[in-house]
Amino acid sequence: MSVMVVRKKVTRKWEKLPGRNTFCCDGRVMMARQKGIFYLTLFLILGTCTLFFAFECRYLAVQLSPAIPVFAAMLFLFSMATLLRTSFSDPGVIPRALPDEAAFIEMEIEATNGAVPQGQRPPPRIKNFQINNQIVKLKYCYTCKIFRPPRASHCSICDNCVERFDHHCPWVGNCVGKRNYRYFYLFILSLSLLTIYVFAFNIVYVALKSLKIGFLETLKETPGTVLEVLICFFTLWSVVGLTGFHTFLVALNQTTNEDIKGSWTGKNRVQNPYSHGNIVKNCCEVLCGPLPPSVLDRRGILPLEESGSRPPSTQETSSSLLPQSPAPTEHLNSNEMPEDTSTPEEMPPPEPPEPPQDAAEAEK
Amino acid sequence: PTSSRKRKHHHSHDWHLWSLCWSHCSAKKIDRQQFEETVRTLNNLYAEAEKLGGQSYLEGCLACLTAYTIFLCMETHYEKVLKKVSKYIQEQNEKIYAPQGLLLTDPIERGLRVFRLKLPFMKTEA
Fold it and tell me: What PANTHER family does UniProt report for this protein, alphabetically (chain A) (predicted)?
């Protein structure tokens, strides 16, 4: 006789999130789909530092000072911590519009632009808002069906709109945006320092040892040195340059995305309104400013899809995190939760006909 | 007929203004004054969360020095203010909007872009 034990599996919100991210540790870790280059980064850093600690440090600690490996260890740990923080955290992904909001906006767009023939993309929709006497243009994102906040951009690799989008970094395996930019900057800064440090002390080691046993003998004794010097040399050129570039961006409170597009440069363009005009203030804001929490709520529990279940009020929006359906009617039919009959229907100011099922649902 | 009113919130320093886009008038008219007051208070709360000042810099530097491990035991200033916001919204819902048959959702759920007034029950009114 066999007894079947049915274990109720709890579905968390991250399992149903749209976009091309991978999640680990039950939603605690969020990364892009392609992680190969991230593993390469890890391998290079860990490998080079292991060689450094194993060979050069033993000699240098005795000959020069034990502080050398200690400082190297601190730099190594700090850069690993910031790397993992950058790679694993939510960069500032903006949740997609709920189906009713999306339907409303699309109807509004259609109303002003006229009917769009099937298969053709309607013209980019820009909404102007006046905020504190400045005109702000918001662009409409067709994938996420939202008007993007200023400085947000859609990442095509992760298929998400990200706030204060900087760029998608394959080395880190994630987008760099509002919530992880400071970690990214601290990572490339500490990695530059670590690279310079390891490079310099490798040279010192080779020099010191060559005086005693000769250059070729030194290389034969610790062949890892050659490898380390090579890796550090190439890393120096790329990472240090990148750090310099990002230091410049931080000082001006700009993103890579804006810099590439030339949003704030040029004769007829507005000056960067986000810059305080003061380098110190800009740095402080970008690196030490307040950090908003993730709005994705990856670990929230999705309510069960049963008609008898009464989801708590905070879970109301979770029902709309199900895969986006093209027509709003489909969404309403798949929702069997009693609370959802309360979802308001969108009615545009001029009156194009609504799908009849919406009205039927509303009358329930 | 139902309605969904949307607010667009621009989430940058200095630019806290909720611009009103009334989608259309519904059978249920809510007090515009009351609503603007709610919005204004929420604006002020978010401005407080994003304020750049001594406290936020201190928190940022301290966090950096401890390799951000301090957040395992401490809550950030922003999170504290967000808790205040959700308490305020709950309070407003209880006092003002629920008696009118409306429910205000917390804007943080939609990434501080929009918030919705939901009608928990439908009334067929003219």
Answer: PALMITOYLTRANSFERASE ZDHHC9, ZINC FINGER DHHC DOMAIN CONTAINING PROTEIN
The reply to whether residue B113 touches residue A130, judged by beta carbons under 8 angstroms, is no
Judging contacts by C-beta atoms under 8 Å, the chain A residues touching residue B22 are none
Structure tokens at B88: 């305020």
Say whether pLDDT at A356 is over 60.
Answer: no
List of chain A residues whose C-beta atoms are within 8 Å of the C-beta of residue B24: 347-349
d(CA A130, CA B32): 20
Give dist(CA B25, CA B30) in Å, integer: 10
A169, A175, A232, A283: the active-site residue: A169
Query: Backbone phi, then psi, for B29, in 5-degree steps?
Result: -100, 125
**pLDDT for A351 beyond 80:** no
What residues of chain B lie within 8 A of the CB of A339, using their CB? Answer: 120
What single DSSP character describes residue A301?
B
Overall pTM surpassing 0.90 (yes/no): no
Distance of CA A133 to the CA centre of its chain: 31
What stretches of chain A show up as alpha helix (H) in DSSP? 36-51, 57-63, 67-88, 99-113, 181-213, 215-221, 224-235, 241-252, 256-261, 279-288, 328-334, 356-363
**Which residue, A360, A322, A318, is CA-closest to A341?**
A360
Is A94 within 8 Å of B122 when comparing Cβ atoms?
no
Rounded Cα–Cα distance for residues A248 and A244 (Å)? 6
Q: B95 and chain A: CB distance < 8 Å anywhere?
A: no
Asked if A169 is an active-site residue, the reply is yes
Task: Measure the CA–CA gap between A271 and A355, rounded to whole angstroms.
Answer: 46
Assess contact for A91 and A180: CB atoms under 8 A.
yes
Nearest CA in chain A to B58: A288
DSSP class of A240: I
C-alpha of B22 from chain center: 17
Chain centre distance of CA A256: 14
Q: Mean pLDDT in chain A?
A: 78
> How far apart (Å, rounded) are the C-alpha atoms in residues A239 and A189?
8
Cβ within 8 Å, pair B119-A147: no
pLDDT digits (tens, 9 = 90+) for A8-63: 677 888 888 888 888 888 888 899 888 999 999 999 999 999 999 998 888 888 88
* pLDDT tens digits, one per residue of A217-229: 888 888 889 999 9
Tell me the mean pLDDT in the region B94-106: 81
Residue A129 makes CB contacts below 8 A (sequence gap 6+) with: A135, A136, A138, B8, B10, B19
Res. A315: pLDDT tops 50: no
For an interface test with A, the pick among B18, B68, B102 (most A C-beta atoms closer than 10 Å) comes out as B68
| Dist CA A105 CA A124 (whole Å) | 13
- Which of the four pLDDT bands, split at 50, 70 and 90, describes residue A349? very low
ipTM over 0.95: no
